[in-house]
Amino acid sequence: MAQAVSARGKLATRLARHSTGIIASVLFVAPIVWTVLSAFKPAAEARLPPLPPWPTTGFSLENYATLNSFGDGLWASAQNSIYVSVMTVILSVIVSVLAGYGFSRFRFPFKELFFVLILSTIMIPFQSILTPIFLVLTKLGLHNTLTGLVGVYVTLQLPFSIFMMRNAFDAVPREIEEAARMDGASNLTMLLKVMLPLVWPGVVTIALFAFLGAWNEFLAALVLMTDQSKFTLPVMMTALQSGRFGAIDWGAVQAGVTVMMVPCLILFLALQRFYIRGLMAGAIK
Prior knowledge:
With 285 residues, the protein is mainly α. It contains 13 helices and no strands. Helix 12 runs antiparallel to helix 13 (250-280). The protein is flat, with a radius of gyration of 24 Å. It starts with a helix and ends in a 5-residue tail after the last helix.
């Protein structure tokens, strides 16, 4: 009798967990599906009340054609976003891996002070340093250039990325490093062939954060970019939301949101295994 009661209790607990998981999944996935389906509504239907979320008069690519007619076109803005995002990822990974390895494995004067100073910059609001950044980029001749925008994004990403990589290198047992040293490994060989494969989840995590930060960043791109041909997707979306003659094309807005959202979802789903392991690096030794 007691075993039957216990079994029913376990079954009820399992059902409650699965039900909670299903409800939470639906709540998170529903807005995404709603947005994607709404982007395929014809322009006339997109102005009507949002229910039902799917097209009732047939699927249409009219909203994407309208989106492509803004400014220099959808592909031009997408190319700018891809360029700044990829370059931000490459530079952030290279600098943060080298800095994280140095802070974790080497001794030098004021090491902890430098690390705390780098980490403390996370607490500075970006809006408060926007004017100095604008002046510095103008002085360097990088104002209104995608290269200057990449420099700003890399600077914003580095404190968190260096913190993550130092934790990842700290989690690697020193015995592995000592064994490689006895085999004659140099510092560069040690980093590239011994340490880097062991901290790969941390590298993927900072790369993912750098890509998402650069892909979705809006304020710096809006203030620093004045040439329409260099607008990134978030800035283009602002022009789209302002509308022509004050009217908002909701169908084109949904299409723009879909274009911005899909690459982020694909990357996250493809790299989620490394992402979770990277976040936990250094938490358990």
